[in-house]
Amino acid sequence: MSKTIPQSKIDFIRKNAASSTIPEMAEQLSIAQCTVWKYCVQLRLPFRHSRKVRSDGWSEKDTQFLLENYRKMPVSEIAKKLGRTEKAVTGRWAKVSERADNGKAYRPDSPRITSFRPPASYSNLTQEERINRLLTA
Fold first, then answer.
1. How many independent structural domains does the chain possess?
2. In this predicted model, what pLDDT tens digit does every residue of 9-24 receive, in sequence order?
3. What pLDDT sits at residue 105?
4. Any domain includes 119
5. In a domain? residue 129
6. Low-confidence residues of the chain, pLDDT below 70?
């Protein structure tokens, strides 16, 4: 059975949901963040998450730094400056570069293969002949 909070706290959430973040309201009301979130959802109020960090752990400042420097600096250096792994940096780049470059993500030192078409001479070969040709090459 869930506990209800006083009407005055519900009114506070209604009044401040659009202008304050959930953590800010929870701190001011001395209640759990999940409780504030629950009432925002139940009351269908527009609410804001924390301003500083996105749900995936990347701040807007870190993401902006990545977008500005990805093609200018080595990934290892960016990772070191942001305190993240190289894999995290390249993963974030893949996620945000499509939005920033209108879907034209490009990294000069790691070209992507978009398609592979075998030579025309392969089309006439049987599966066994193709395997033999690959093994003898």
1. 2
2. 999 999 988 888 888 8
3. 45
4. no
5. no
6. 1-2, 49-56, 98-123, 137
Asked if 86 and 38 sit in the same domain, the reply is no
Same domain, 36 and 65: no
Per-residue model confidence (pLDDT) at position 8: 93
Q: Say if residues 86 and 77 touch (Cβ distance below 8 Å).
A: no
Task: Check: pTM over 0.70? Answer yes or no.
Answer: no
Strand partners, 59: 53
Helices (H), 1-126: 7-16, 22-29, 33-42, 60-69, 75-82, 86-100, 120-123
Cα–Cα distance for residue pair 48/55, rounded to 1 Å: 12
Instruction: Note whether 22 and 57 are same-domain residues.
Output: no
Angle at 63 between CA 60 and CA 69, to 5 degrees: 140
CB 42 within 8 A of CB 10: no
User: Is residue 75 in some structural domain?
Assistant: yes
On whether both 58 and 97 belong to a single domain, the answer is yes
- Residues 26, 59 within the same domain: no
**If you ran DSSP here, which 8-state letter would residue 21 be given?**
B
- pLDDT at position 106 is 46
